[in-house]
Amino acid sequence: CVARHPTNRIFKFADETTVIGLISDNNEVFNINIGTDKFTNIGLHFSPRFDYGGDHNRVVCNTFQDGNWGEEVKWGSFPFCQGQEFKVIIDFTPTEFVVTLSDDSVINFPNRFNAKEYSAMNLLGKVRFTSLQIKQIPILPCA
């Protein structure tokens, strides 16, 4: 399944993105990518891996810039099960992506490009994506 977010919506600081889906029984990996409109640069490559690329039940995050992958960061928390629903919440802050998983564990992945906005998202893998919600979280001024 490939879903692309409309290009007329820009992901900015304080955006919260919620993705809900159902993972197929024979899925090896699925990806959520947030990047530029043609994905020449990916600020967040979020990749839960059941059995892919030498990783088994690991979440891998990375960036992609100018044709090259950055250094992978791997996490041990893996609340994903084949054949079951999942929920991922991604908060975009000035310094990082804060990813909350279904079991409420949190992944903090740096905004390596220091970008203030991204223009596209895609969802890839053997997953039926049932909901994609993006909302702006108000930023309150300091007192």
Automatic annotation (TrEMBL):
It comes from the Eukaryota. One of its GO terms (molecular function) is galactoside binding. This is Galectin. SUPFAM superfamilies: Concanavalin A-like lectins/glucanases (SSF49899). Keywords: Lectin. GO terms for cellular component: extracellular space. Gene3D superfamilies: 2.60.120.200. Residues 3-135 form the Galectin domain. Signal peptide: none annotated. Transmembrane segments: none annotated. It comes from Salarias fasciatus.
